[in-house]
Recover the amino acids of this structure.
């Protein structure tokens, strides 16, 4: 059981081959940093003209690294505070009391796409904030 209780998402459409999906609205990029380059290459088939990519990785350089491959215009900055792990295929276990995301455009503007992501996350129990200076926000702030 997760610290905040269990929940299930059904139905789930999952694949190991992103080309099967086609373009999406939002990509939550949540890989280990040592596979950033490879994972960035793998998501290219799901990047459409209006796709936004939000990296929830450690390190401020992640958005830049991903943006080089998928296009910087698709990137928004974000940082997260959470402790979780993959317990089994399709099963994520959260062990932290905290679950917070701060997001923002890399240029500091508050845009409709940032507002749309903020609004979507309002329906969850995650603390979500928008920053006009996401480049300087780190998990210690």
């Amino acid at each position: 059981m997760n610290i905040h209780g269990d929940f299930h998402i059904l139905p789930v459409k999952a694949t190991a081959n992103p080309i099967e999906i086609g373009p999406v609205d939002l990509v939550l990029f949540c890989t280990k940093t040592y596979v950033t380059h490879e994972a960035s290459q793998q998501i290219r088939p799901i990047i459409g003209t209006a796709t936004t990519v939000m990296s929830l990785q450690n390190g401020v350089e992640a958005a830049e690294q991903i943006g080089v491959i998928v296009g910087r215009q698709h990137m928004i900055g974000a940082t997260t505070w959470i402790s979780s792990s993959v317990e089994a295929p399709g099963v994520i276990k959260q062990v932290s009391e905290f679950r917070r995301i701060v997001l923002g455009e890399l240029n500091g503007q508050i845009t409709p796409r940032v507002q749309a992501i903020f609004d979507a996350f309002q329906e969850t129990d995650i603390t979500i904030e928008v920053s006009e200076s996401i480049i300087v926000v780190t998990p210690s702030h």
Remarks:
- The longest strand covers residues 47-55.
- The chain has one domain: 18-136.
